[in-house]
């Protein structure tokens, strides 16, 4: 009877959503002529992924506006050149010579008119910027009296030093790359402190976009460097035509694009819909592609429907519960093991993800080239009775913080936390759940006043290399950072990870990454919960949809099926 009532309630709720969306104002027809509408969420949106928080995804726009030196090829460890055309590595593995593509044009926009093509100066500028090297800045002559009259150069230097680059900070890129220099206009040389097999993968991530040095210097001269993040200029297949904050971005095809021409002239990225109403907006034909639909609504879709199709892929992401090793109680391995055995992860996957995720028995997601299919002998099964016996008499009262932001790796963090709280209560553990924002968490970490025993969070990356996945959230280098929220540090883990980087043989790299993973699963600083799939639904007239494991796609491959006469 309860199930029947619940089904009827869901039906009424869905009907209410249909009425709500039908009553909402539609996108003006003037914005949709000769184009396609892509509905997605505004969470994590940025025109500059370099400054966006690590572990967020905003590449639906940046992948269209910018290019990178390399792209990930076929879900593998291999990168394919993009703005680069080829590369070579020195015999000692400490130098990479990259040959650049010629004839690449920057966008010609109402706010910027380029005077030259893309060249090595742009690559040196873009990479040095995230490294925090002053060499990318305009020359600052301390003895030049002109700078005292007009201190724009000095302001530029001081402001530039304050910019954060969370992803590159999390992987300690400035401890990997020693320098980058222009050998000639179409060749750059990257010198490394030590051999590092992950560098090219990092340069293929969504964060490693290439800016126009000329545009940045022009903005600096006008004392308007912030415009670099709001009025983007890139080399990609689309450029920004206009943008309404938290509403939409209209992209216009770049007819000077160096690669294959995009087939659709206008793309409207609709940012205005929440997850619960995005699918219904799609059914109202207000968008031809809807990304990240509400997983609880996926049951409304039918695989053989002639109007649309659903596309999914495994994702490079992980939701997990981290134990705070700064708390003496959480250093107790028996307690951590018992808590992990208390959590019914299969129930979380069923009730929170609606079976659109897999229970994570490893740290490295299954889609990674380094993932092993073997189940480790120390797999932590759901064992509530054993957990209760282990925790008997301990009278635990724990604070669990929840980073309350809907992400790919967890569509409903607070509900997940409540399920975990209930599970732990059955084992005799009293849990107080506190919802926190990322800004609050950063502030508490900076003051060293965070008082959580556990924190529910997650991680995602934009390449399949385990280095960028495990090192930020588990290495000694990131202890007390917002990425390593367990504050766990084991030198053996770092050694395994470093061994993987110094080896060029893929099989040996994978072996070391799995040794590092096995160590994590034995010591259990985090409890892996789930790896979520990525979903989108598209109108059947839209062809060329190729979604990556990172949720991104290239709009340039999209086209409309010609109507049959």
From TrEMBL:
Gene Ontology biological process terms, A to Z: peptide transport
InterPro entries linked to this entry: Peptide/Ni-bd, SBP_5, SBP_5_CS, SBP_5_dom
Keyword Signal set for record: yes
Keywords assigned by UniProt, alphabetized: Signal
Keyword Cell membrane belongs to the record: no
PROSITE patterns on file: SBP_BACTERIAL_5
Organism superkingdom: Bacteria
Pfam family, one: SBP_bac_5
Domain Solute-binding protein family: 78-479
Example of a GO MF term: peptide transmembrane transporter activity
Cellular compartments per GO CC: ATP-binding cassette (ABC) transporter complex; outer membrane-bounded periplasmic space
Signal peptide range in chain numbering: 1-23
Family listed: Belongs to the bacterial solute-binding protein 5 family.
Protein name: ABC transporter substrate-binding protein
Organism from which the protein derives: Rodentibacter genomosp. 2
Origin organism lineage: Bacteria, Pseudomonadati, Pseudomonadota, Gammaproteobacteria, Pasteurellales
């Amino acid at each position: 009877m309860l199930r029947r009532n619940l089904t009827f309630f869901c039906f009424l709720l869905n009907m209410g959503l249909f009425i709500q969306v039908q009553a909402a104002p539609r996108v003006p027809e003037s914005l949709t002529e000769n184009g396609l509408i892509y509905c997605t969420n505004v969470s994590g949106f940025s025109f500059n992924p370099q400054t966006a928080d690590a572990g967020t995804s905003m590449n639906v726009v940046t992948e269209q506006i910018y290019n990178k030196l390399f792209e990930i090829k076929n879900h593998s460890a291999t990168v394919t050149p993009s703005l680069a055309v080829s590369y070579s590595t020195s015999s000692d593995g400490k130098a990479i010579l990259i040959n650049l593509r010629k004839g690449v044009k920057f966008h010609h926009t109402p706010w910027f008119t380029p005077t030259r093509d893309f060249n090595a100066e742009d690559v040196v500028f873009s990479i040095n910027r995230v490294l925090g090297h002053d060499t990318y800045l305009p020359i600052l002559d301390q003895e030049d009296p002109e700078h005292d009259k007009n201190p724009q150069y000095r302001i530029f230097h001081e402001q530039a030093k304050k910019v954060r680059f969370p992803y590159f900070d999390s992987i300690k890129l400035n401890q990997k790359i020693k320098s980058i220099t222009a050998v000639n206009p179409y060749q750059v040389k990257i010198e490394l402190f030590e051999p590092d097999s992950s560098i090219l993968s990092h340069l293929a991530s969504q964060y490693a976009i290439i800016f126009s040095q000329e545009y940045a210097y022009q903005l600096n001269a006008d004392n308007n460097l912030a415009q670099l993040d709001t009025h983007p200029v890139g080399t990609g297949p689309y450029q920004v035509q206009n943008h309404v904050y938290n509403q939409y971005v209209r992209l216009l095809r770049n007819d000077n694009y160096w690669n294959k021409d995009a087939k659709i002239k206008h793309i409207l990225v609709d940012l205005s819909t929440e997850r619960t109403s995005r699918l219904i907006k799609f059914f109202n034909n207000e968008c031809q592609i809807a990304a990240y639909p509400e997983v609880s609504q996926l049951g409304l879709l039918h695989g053989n429907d002639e109007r649309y199709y659903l596309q999914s892929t495994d994702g490079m992401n992980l939701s997990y519960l981290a134990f705070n090793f700064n708390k003496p109680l959480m250093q107790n391995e028996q307690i951590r093991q018992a808590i992990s055995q208390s959590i019914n992860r299969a129930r979380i996957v069923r009730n929170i993800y609606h079976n659109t995720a897999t229970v994570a028995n490893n740290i490295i997601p299954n889609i990674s080239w380094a993932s092993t299919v073997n189940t480790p002998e120390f797999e932590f099964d759901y064992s509530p009775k054993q957990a209760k016996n282990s925790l008997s008499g301990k009278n635990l009262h724990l604070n669990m913080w929840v980073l309350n932001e809907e992400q790919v790796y967890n569509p409903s963090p607070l509900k997940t936390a409540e399920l975990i709280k209930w599970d732990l209560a059955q084992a005799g553990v009293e849990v107080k759940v506190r919802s926190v924002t990322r800004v609050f968490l950063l502030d508490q970490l900076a003051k060293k006043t965070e008082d959580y025993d556990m924190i529910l969070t997650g991680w995602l990356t934009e390449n399949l290399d385990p280095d960028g996945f495990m090192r930020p959230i588990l290495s000694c280098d990131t202890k007390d950072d917002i990425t390593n929220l367990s504050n766990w540090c084991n030198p053996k883990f770092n050694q395994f990870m470093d061994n993987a980087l110094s080896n060029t043989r893929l099989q040996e790299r994978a072996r070391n990454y799995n040794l590092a993973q096995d160590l994590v699963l034995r010591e259990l600083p985090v409890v892996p919960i789930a790896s979520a799939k990525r979903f989108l639904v598209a109108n059947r007239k839209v062809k060329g949809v190729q979604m990556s494991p990172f949720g991104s796609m290239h709009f340039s491959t999209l086209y409309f099926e010609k109507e049959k006469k």
